[in-house]
């Protein structure tokens, strides 16, 4: 099992990343923060929300299958109830790296989704946030990481 730091590094080495659950109403929404950070750091990032055609001034896709050319990795930023469906979509699309976002709250982590992904050869990061790790990190997220690791919101191993 890779350490969280190793898994985060491998995940963030991908250049085409989809973020699910990006909201049309971005204020304080974790998916939007992740989406913006990846975009601002030069990633080719794709917003996914079945109820939006545009978010953050960019085109939004209704599902992962709609993203032209596919993606290398996915950040799940929806409620846990939707994570398993997204994980099935990732397996069908051959996506091998998925990060289920989780900050201080409940986040997007679903045990069933994580188990399904792992059974299908997907590296699943079940907690934490891409903004906690370089090259996408900021000071606030770096400070939160140890506290959230102690609280089991960020896994030690993946």
TrEMBL record:
<protein>
    <recommendedName>
        <fullName>CoA-binding domain-containing protein</fullName>
    </recommendedName>
</protein>
<dbReference type="InterPro" id="IPR003781">
    <property type="entry name" value="CoA-bd"/>
</dbReference>
<dbReference type="Pfam" id="PF13380">
    <property type="entry name" value="CoA_binding_2"/>
</dbReference>
<feature type="domain" description="CoA-binding">
    <location>
        <begin position="11"/>
        <end position="95"/>
    </location>
</feature>
<dbReference type="InterPro" id="IPR036291">
    <property type="entry name" value="NAD(P)-bd_dom_sf"/>
</dbReference>
